[in-house]
Design brief:
Distance between the termini of chain A: 74 Å
Number of strands of chain A: 10
Shape of chain B: globular
CATH architecture of chain B: 2-Layer Sandwich
CATH superfamily of chain B: STAS domain
CATH topology of chain B: Transcription Regulator spoIIAA
Shape of chain A: globular
Oligomer: heterodimer
Largest sheet of chain A: 9 strands, antiparallel
Order of helices and strands of chain A: EHHHHEEHEEEEEEHEH
Number of strands of chain B: 5
Number of helices of chain A: 7
CATH topology of chain A: Alpha-D-Glucose-1,6-Bisphosphate, Chain A, domain 4
Largest interface: A-B, 58 and 51 residues
Strand order of the largest sheet of chain B: 1-2-3-4-5
CATH class of chain A: Alpha Beta
Strand content of chain A: 25-35%
CATH superfamily of chain A: START domain
């Protein structure tokens, strides 16, 4: 057990042969990005500690990312919000790709935002007005202050037949350059979606790329079937529409969204098939029927 | 994409076990570095891969996503993935994202190599 072979050192990107384009796209190592929409709550941007002083001082102050992560929770707690039903969220646990059932997908939706829009401005706008960019018929009821780590937002999603799928999302992470939402039990997918913006291209002609990256598995067998037969296409349309709306808000004349889907794991996790007991779609249909029956009775 | 401020040293310990010492910032940008380290650690006989996070200085949600991708690759090769050296803060992030249900967390390299959870 104590026999140790010499280390094989793997170093950073430039030492393992990134392309000239990628290398040229890299910003100066000590460049500190502008603050996000709420720097007091979200803490300093990623490189701020480096710019501020010696590494030891930064270490003494705690991890630089501490304010960007939500505090640990076991189950979601929610307050009621106007305009959404708000069911199927309270008491649920969060689910990542590890807890999901279906094939694992990584989906990327990218939009070029030009050279005049700074990544921090794009993310600040997105965080502050997130619900306004959602396609019609869907509601996102988050905190009034925008998207902040630890927030729980309630969702009503249009699924046809006058039925709304009621679920929620948890803000897992947020800083000036990105934010991430994680799903609870019963949501269509188990995983997270990260919204980010960054500069790409040669330094003198770099432009901002805004993207949403989904890492997910369908939460249970029923959702897996639904995703296979139209669900993925619907989701692609949803996020493309959201990014387009953001692009319009940012003043882009003709926002275009590129979509890329990669199946990271073709295996289904049958040990998580019983996630179906939490399925929010089934529960939402039953809740709608009960609501209609009660309304007729009165 | 920003330059990944990270190094990963691969050590082989005995037969079939490799330790990856991670130093720096774990973000989505360091995926090529992590995957190169993974390939260096996986020589066909490796059945256990231990990630040493004692030198972890920063991690964002992109970094967590990258670890999930690594986990999928390791599972495909029937390799067991574990970790040690996580500070309380990063251990809580593993618990919050429920990554700890797939990557066993140990207190020290010795317990990770012996497979003894605290």
């Amino acid at each position: 057990m104590t026999e140790t072979a010499g280390p094989d050192r793997v170093r950073s990107a430039e030492q393992i042969g990134l392309s000239a384009r990628e290398a040229a796209a890299m910003p100066p190592p000590h460049q500190a990005p502008a603050a996000g929409p709420d720097p007091a709550r979200n803490g300093p941007p990623r490189n701020a500690a480096k710019a501020a002083g010696p590494r030891d001082a930064a270490k003494a102050a705690g991890p630089r990312d501490a304010a960007s992560w939500a505090k640990k929770i076991d189950r979601l707690e929610v307050n009621s919000r106007d305009g959404v039903r708000g069911t199927n969220v309270a008491g649920r646990r969060l689910t990542g790709p590890v807890q999901g059932f279906g094939k694992m997908w990584q989906k990327t939706y990218r939009m070029k935002a030009g050279s005049r829009i700074e990544p921090e401005r794009a993310i600040a706008t997105w965080r502050e007005h997130f619900p306004e960019f959602w396609p019609k018929g869907n509601r996102f009821a988050g905190a009034l202050t925008g998207i902040n780590p630890g927030d729980v937002a309630l969702l009503d999603l249009a699924i046809g037949g006058g039925v709304k799928l009621s679920t929620g999302v948890f803000v897992l992470y947020a800083d000036a350059e990105s934010f991430t939402l994680m799903t609870p039990q019963g949501h269509m997918f188990a995983g997270w979606i990260t919204f980010s913006a960054e500069r790409e291209g040669p330094q003198d002609g770099a432009e901002t790329i805004v993207q949403a990256l989904v890492l997910m598995r369908a939460n249970d067998p029923l959702y897996e079937v639904a995703m296979t037969f139209g669900g993925h296409r619907k989701e692609d349309k949803f996020w493309a529409a959201t990014l387009t709306a953001l692009g319009e808000r940012l003043g882009l004349p003709d926002p275009k969204v590129e979509t890329k889907s990669v199946c990271v794991d073709t295996k289904r996790q049958w040990r998580h098939a019983n996630n179906i007991w939490q399925n929010s779609m089934i529960r939402s249909v039953m809740q709608t029927l009960t609501f209609r029956r009660n309304k007729q009775a009165t | 994409m920003s330059a990944p401020a990270i190094t990963m040293d691969v050590r082989r310990i005995g037969d079939g076990v490799a330790v990856v010492d991670i130093k720096g910032e774990v973000t989505a940008a360091c995926e090529p570095v992590l995957m190169s380290a993974y390939e260096a650690a996986s020589d066909g006989r490796t059945s256990r891969l231990v990630l040493n996070f004692a030198g972890l200085e920063y991690m964002n949600s992109g970094g967590i996503g990258m670890l999930v991708t690594l986990l999928v690759r390791a599972n495909r090769q029937r390799q067991q993935l574990s970790a040690y050296g996580l500070s309380e803060h990063y251990r809580e992030i593993f618990e919050l994202t429920r990554l700890d249900e797939a990557i066993t967390i140990y207190d020290s390299e010795e317990s990770a190599l012996n497979g003894v959870v605290r």
